[in-house]
Specification:
Length: 97
């Protein structure tokens, strides 16, 4: 599933990973309200869903932030990817009905 964040990062998500239990747990950790768990969840999500594209995302963020990849911006990008995927899946589900 391909998409693009507001900042211009183009991604290609491994769709099979979106229904994987570990991915669901990673997203739940990100929404837990616990900062440590949220970071662990984000790291796991990015590794599982973006795979090799993780380094491209980090480079993309660094290129816009003076060579640094701020945690908050990484979280924002990851949440945009999650929301984009959810919207696409919801659209596909409604068209299939």
């Amino acid at each position: 599933m391909k998409g693009k964040t507001k900042s211009g990062f183009k991604f290609d998500v491994n769709e099979a990973m979106l229904d994987d239990w570990e991915t669901v747990k990673a997203i739940a950790d990100m929404d837990s309200g616990d900062a440590s768990r949220a970071i662990q969840g984000a790291v796991k999500f990015v590794n599982m869903v973006l795979g090799e594209e993780e380094n491209q995302l980090i480079d993309h963020i660094r290129s816009k932030n003076g060579g640094v990849c701020p945690r908050e911006i990484m979280f924002r990008e990851v949440m945009e990817i999650i929301n984009s995927v959810k919207e696409t899946k919801n659209l596909q589900s409604s068209q299939g009905s």
